[in-house]
DNA sequence: ATCCTCCCCTAC
DNA sequence: TAAGGTAGGGGAGGAT
């Protein structure tokens, strides 16, 4: 019976009988024994004096009484609060100058004595009035602004920028600052950098020129924000999406805000509750001795939740299942009005929920940071030379500025190739100037030992909250939603972060407030301040980016950086300047301390840094470094350092791994595990994990920092507050969730082809109301997957389609609405919406190139593309049996069922059943043909499903799958994978967790077919679509596909017009498909291709020309795909814009454009001067030659315009193709 | 041997 | 009152 149960790890967390919790509680008894355990952590304390000292001091200072007192004063603190921001604001002027400048200064001092901190301080003061962070900026302020124009002007000038009262000299103005724009202005400034005033204010406050991109002014967003509508998903790093919550930004600017702020701070005040507490356990005022330090075995991780993951396991936890409902929740739920307003049936439940969910924020921030890092790196790559410059000499400009300004720089020729990636450049640099020389030499990675740093804020949320509550420093404080005494001791509110003082009592993140109160009755609480966390994080990352060769975003408060080159530089400089003498210093550690000081100065919060030769060790080192310190784990100490640790101390190894190790190896200690053979470890934990552990124990971890992995899925989950009474409510909720999901997809410009619905259902043995207020409690989980398809078989982000499919899948479970406790929608098989739109990233990968590659062979071309094979029907075709689709398909999971390819004939699937993904994957022309074919045959099978019907309807058009494959992709390897990915699978796979839950019966999506989905996938046929085709069509499609494929071609996709094209009849089959230059992009491919070093570039003009020729020729009868046009445009623009160090790129771009022009004149010369068609092709579908010609010219003009835009910026004029 | 797919697990 | 989200690594086991 127990299908898949989901454990709620949680449930037990909220009980007092949680084993771990009890243990901690037990240790608390010791009332007065004041220990000075500054390090309650398992590992031996470390740290250097300063931090330790501070810690101790604080500890001692506090007592419950103090807490109360302070709280009482809070109101009074108002003024202080207000002042605080102000002072820091002013401070920015003070030392705001260039932090990087300071760094260079640092270098100098280093040579002399390595007294960074002092130098920074002094230096900072010196420059007080000379901040130059805005130097180079020429700013125009439009309209009314929040900090007034006068204030902004002063700010600009004070920091070295230039203020323009008029916009008459657009050419000079680098940025426009505004809070609002009229439509006309929006148009006028379309091509300029329009930023919000926060950019300047926050940069000044940070003492750094923050990336303006994060403050781009966006009309609509502004609007939303002002309306308070606010999307649930906060696009944090977007700069301002400030919310107007209570916490809101405690911005420095307006006093009113400050006061408001105070209010927010106030919540803490109520905590005055302590007074009452005071009486109670003063005892608790003193932390227990180091919490469970002396455990016989090792302590085991800080996870206070050792939750069972299955009901069975959960059952072992005393009091978990048999429990009765949370009385408070039960009472609340008894009131219909309350339910309507506070549970999942409330109108804006999702939005409000996400806005307050810390975990949601953490996830969102992480994704945004990764993205920002990626973009920054790409930008930097473009300006590789700049990087070199920076490294070469410590410049004094701000990072961002450097990057931008240096683009022009040239000096660095060598980089010569222009295409050299930033990374490579850097490497070269660091090793020493000698290598600078060129390219190839850069060793790919020499054996140089890396210097990795793991940087992490100390109790981040708490530290951030203390900025405005200095009086709470040194006390046991936690951040959680429940504020004040109200929640009292029964609050199930989760603690997000605990101060180090609170940790001494055993309080940890994830614990409920009531548990924490039992451990420490005087614990104080602070509210969340999401906006602030985001800002601090931005400052933190900005600093790290300036010093790192590479950076991996781990979390808002955490990042891994590779500082190998910087450390090397420091070493060499030291060596040069002062020979042998200096000795004992550790450049890496000094560097880390410099970074810590910088972050502290800018953010006011402590960051700890762990340094080691690899990621794993750096993480361990940072733990030892905390709080407020740095620790360099030297090679010689690794062994001794690791031995006493436990397996779950290693990142990536948690409760489960520990259990397995204990059960199968009878040991969890690394020292003991070190005795085990690799085989033993693999046997216990699995191959890969076993090997990872084996190496980890020996201090080995060769992983590189990752910062460019493409996103693979986007999902929305709500497993809190889910309480429905009817199916209508569930449906409504699900559609809202689908909308949220769609928004997230759109936000990153992606669409998907696959959807997985996840459902949490109350476990039969669990109480109706979970222990955690409105929580999900112990549940069973179910997932079901379905193919998401838009009309043309394309990937989609349409909320309706997502909602429809989700609802369909959910209905298929037939669950009682009242039993649902969680719902999640995940979209997979993602692709970028427009290939070229946004980012400019990597582009130079031409998809085109692949086409040629066959010849050139290079490994890259794995694809073989095209060969246009004709597709003949192939001899043996398997048959696909189609069953009527039912909506849900749940049927049994007969997963494998259907496909046996044996047969010889097949029925064509109905359109809706053909896997859209596959379908999409087909070359556009092929797809069109297929559509036509379907249309012609008017197939639409009758699947009863309305959805399907609609789907097929939309799909309509094309018939036959002919394929040609042209693929292009870059990285062969991926091709295959992608192809498969595209392939469909259809049926929703339900993962059932135990079977009975499913209702079976309905027909499933595909029913049985004799062709396997996999094959369909390989053939580029979407199973879903396929299934719905009439048998004869299926047969035909398969035959064609197979024959086409025979040559081993891969099919690619393209998206395109859905309209049927009139072209010649549907014809028989495919006409030779035009060679397309397309590139479809399964984004993943593209991105991956870009992985370091693998980019493909058009290195030779000829290559490009050949590709273009094929493209134009192949599409002589069709208008070009917008995606191809965009891609091409992107490529050309990049050529023009890139490689600032030489004109090679421009020349190439011009040559290519000329060639294109020639080709167009050759084929469509007649329409060169025709006006835009607009009416595109068809209506009737017929793409007249005229329409085609116009479309091509339109594309040309579009691309030329983009090139000129860039050229104008760079050279001041348009490009001449004469 | 390689691939998927469908989970579980982990982290913040 | 509270806001238990999410993306990606990897294993098990089936298909190819
Ligand atoms: N279960 C958790 C774990 C973390 N966080 C949030 C709050 C933390 O402040 C932030 C960073 O997590 P860390 O693990 O880095 O913990 P802290 O920064 O609080 O403490 P430290 O890094 O000093 O151990 O993430 C959370 O909300 N819930
Ligand atoms: Mg932290």
Automatic annotation (TrEMBL):
Its main location: nucleus. Residues 129-217 form the BRCT domain. It is found in: Nucleus. The keyword DNA repair applies. GO terms for biological process: DNA repair; error-free translesion synthesis; error-prone translesion synthesis. Residues 452-654 form the UmuC domain. Deoxycytidyl transferase involved in DNA repair. Transfers a dCMP residue from dCTP to the 3'-end of a DNA primer in a template-dependent reaction. May assist in the first step in the bypass of abasic lesions by the insertion of a nucleotide opposite the lesion. Required for normal induction of mutations by physical and chemical agents. Involved in mitochondrial DNA mutagenesis. This is DNA repair protein REV1. It comes from Ceriporiopsis subvermispora (strain B).
